[in-house]
Amino acid sequence: MYKIYLKSGKEESLRRFHPWVFSGAISRVEGKVQEGDLVDIYTSQNEFIARGHYQIGSIMVRVLTFDEQEAIDASFWKNRLHEAYQKRQAIGIASYPGNNTFRLVHGEGDNLPGLVIDIYNRTAVMQAHSAGMHYQRMEIAQTLMEVMDGKIDHIYYKSETTLPYKADLGPENGFLIGGSKDNIAVEYGLQFHIDWLKGQKTGFFVDQRENRALLERYSKGRSVLNMFCYTGGFSVYAMRGGALQVDSVDSSAKAIELTKKNVALNFPDDKRHNAYAEDAFKFLDEMEKDKYDLIILDPPAFAKHRDALRNALQGYRRINAKAFEKIRHGGILFTFSCSQAVNKDQFRTSVFTAAAASGRKVSILHQLTQPADHPVNIYHPEGEYLKGLVLYVE
Length: 394
Ligand code: SAH
What we know:
By secondary structure, the chain is of the alpha/beta class. The chain has ten helices and 20 strands. The chain starts with a strand and ends with a strand. The mean pLDDT is 95.
């Protein structure tokens, strides 16, 4: 096992179980360690403190265990995956009637940094964010079949865009186990085509499930604009909730196609829905005032990195300002940010600034976040990334 020694005093965050070791905390690396190797971390006092996957970059180790006795072997993967599955059973989502879509493994939130697994009916889509997880993908896949005990038949690996590019791992997306063409999953009784081949993330934004369900309750009798619709998730819930009319907008023509397909799958020949492949800012600029009384703004992560923060906050302010300017009196705005680099307060300040510019009375009805199958490790607050506000606009 390779050994990494920390600088004096740099073990504090690990003592509090934070699962990352930054390059600045390291004093010495023993041996020719390669990206993806397992390493043991020692304090400057030569005490074992953690074990994890080595990687190159500002985060140099992602911790898998703080227990010296716990080897990273077959029983490690089995225990961790089993714990994750048990958590989903405790939440109730793993066997919720009329639902077969949920996140089974959420990285640090499940003490498996660098690994994401989403379940879509009988297929698991697995995504590695670190070389270490990539090398162990087959072992993880086989163990997952065992842990899920007959509940899944196929495992699709989708890591071409998530692995560190410089590691040069040449990952190929494809089935590790099985191989299904049936890609329809059910979320709270609604059906969705999941494009795990080409879609964003693992093919679907599983993280908005509870927020979509909340939106359904507000939809009756309203005219809805679903901005940044992607697969049309919010649109389909709005239709089931009794919306008068639903317009979906996304700048990607493929997203619009997918939205139309998903609406047709659940509500064939329903004339209430229209979809437009257009830029959000242009659409909001040109749309007439008072047309909608329920607007969803779920933009892509405007800030992928810290340095982009200022522009991102400006983006949130601009987009929300347009919604406040145009939404009908008594309207409801669902507004989100999924940028990890933007915290709850910063997001709220952007929305506050946009509201103030419109001069309208605005109250907060709900403060939203990611669902329970995307848990946040209490020692890793960075894991909280999804923020949302539901606002009543007078
Ligand atoms: N609300 C969706 C997820 C949104 S992902 C859901 O629940 O599944 C963000 C989407 O914004 C992507 O589909 C992307 O194509 C779209 N997008 C990015 N920039 C855009 C822009 N300037 N105007 C409109 N859509 C944009």
